[in-house]
Amino acid sequence: MKKLLVATLMLTILPLVNIHAFSELEKLLIAEATTPELKKIAKDYFLRKAQDQKELAEKYKAMSNLNRGGKSTSEDSERKKYKQLADHVSLESAKYKEQADKF
Question: Disordered: where is this region (predicted)?
Fold first, then answer.
């Protein structure tokens, strides 16, 4: 019964969550970039966004290597958290770079 309730809840909530890297505004920018000038603007935007995400990933990687002092388990969980954030942001950076290359 619990599993059925959890599955039903997940199926109703999951479609509401935006799991894509691009926001609605960015999707609109992609759709409306029809002229060469607009394509150049869109490409510049996505390249800047990719660079920002790459810098953020580097910061998270640096934070995952910091020694804050404290208990080993909390230290490991912090490292794991920042490493996961770095990996996620790196993937987003790659998606933005890929989109910029399409223009």
Answer: 63-82
Q: What are phi and psi of 52, to 5 degrees?
A: -60, -45
Nearest alpha-carbon partner for 30 in 47, 46, 53? 46
pLDDT at 97: 93
66 neighbors 15 (Cβ within 8 angstroms): no
Number of Cα atoms under 13 Å in the Cβ half of residue 93: 16
- DSSP for residue 17: S
Which pLDDT does position 14 carry in this prediction? Answer: 47
| CA–CA gap between residue 41 and residue 47 (Å, rounded) | 10
The residue-averaged pLDDT of 52-62 equals 94
Region of residue 41 (phi > 0: left; psi between -120 and 50: alpha; otherwise: beta): alpha
